[in-house]
């Protein structure tokens, strides 16, 4: 049986791996056209972080309008994009931190702080978008915020979880590095007479 404790090198790569997963979900959110879609037929509306597209029920061609013409569209895209860039930087720093033989735990805590900044930027972008979109863009039919918008939130949730772990990891520095001897506990002297 293989036991992977905190001192195991393979387990140390879980946090950078989770950051990589958050980057993949962020790429899907940035590139996806499913931030807003028509909920049911006829499918006449779809939007991404960058543009809003509509069409008539009979027409098969989409007519698109850039959201970068709106101040809120630029703000939502900029805040989410800035958060994503900082996330990529944090991923690179985490790979460097966990590649060093002796971990620099203050360095790891700094990565956790940066990840909270990433989460703040992404949350701002993810809140600005639906509020202002529904106020300023005319919607037709029943619409829903869809899969690409969900990937944006999933990326943010993973970043928040990783931020807590990165900030708390230095509290268990000795356990991670394997510097603590195991402590054995016995229930009572009556059960273990050989201890007397």
From TrEMBL:
Residue ranges that the Swiss-Prot or TrEMBL entry lists as coiled coil: none
UniProt subcellular location: Cell junction, Desmosome; Cell membrane; Cytoplasm
Keyword annotations: Apoptosis, Cell adhesion, Cell junction, Cell membrane, Cytoplasm, Membrane, Transmembrane, Transmembrane helix
Claim: Cell membrane is one of the keywords in the record: yes
TM helices/strands, residue ranges: 12-32, 77-98, 110-131, 151-172
GO biological process, one term: apoptotic process
Gene3D superfamilies referenced in this protein's UniProt entry, alphabetically: 1.20.140.150
Entry keyword 4Fe-4S: no
One cellular component (GO) term of this entry: plasma membrane
InterPro entries, alphabetized: P53_induced, PMP22/EMP/MP20/Claudin
Secretion signal span: none
Family of the protein in this entry: Belongs to the TMEM47 family.
Protein name: p53 apoptosis effector related to PMP-22
Organism: Malurus elegans
Lineage: Eukaryota, Metazoa, Chordata, Craniata, Vertebrata
